[in-house]
Amino acid sequence: xxxRGQKVVRLIDSDGSQLGMMSYSEAKEKADEKELDLVLVxxxxxxxxxxxxxxxxxxxxxxxxxxxxxxxxxxxxxxxxSIAEHDYQVRVSQATRCLNNxxxxxxxxxxxxxxTQHADLGEALLVRMSKDLQQVAEVSQAPxxxxxxxxxxxxxxxxxxxx
Length: 163
Fold this sequence. Notes:
It is a single chain. Helix content is 33%, strand content 33%. It is of the alpha/beta class. The chain has 2 domains: 8-66, Ubiquitin-like (UB roll), CATH 3.10.20.80; 74-156, Translation Initiation Factor IF3 (2-Layer Sandwich). The longest helix has 16 residues, at 85-100. The protein is rod-shaped, with a radius of gyration of 28 Å. The termini are far apart.
């Protein structure tokens, strides 16, 4: 309390510079002048510390930073090149769900035995899948052979593609 009986606070400007010690009412007036919010940032300090800032903009930036900090998740979908049409459609819907959740999708086709001689059919299936998912996905890694597997990596599309 100052000599007039008002609560004394330390005020920090929106750019981080110290504005000094003043009464709470003076700090509120400065916030109104600059059309900013008066936010308590250090209540345990003596005197309490307040900051001038645009609270809605600050909240938006915090939410934006939280989404950037989210780790990238890679979901795997496995299938064979001789997959039935209904099962293929199920895999496409699973991939769509994952991509809409902002996860990356790794599509794997396993080849066994004589199927390795028909790897081109597996690659054709992956190309078909990439065309079916082109609304929500972009190909990060084109179909490539890795031993007895063919792998394609899809990432969520940042902007929705229109036909």
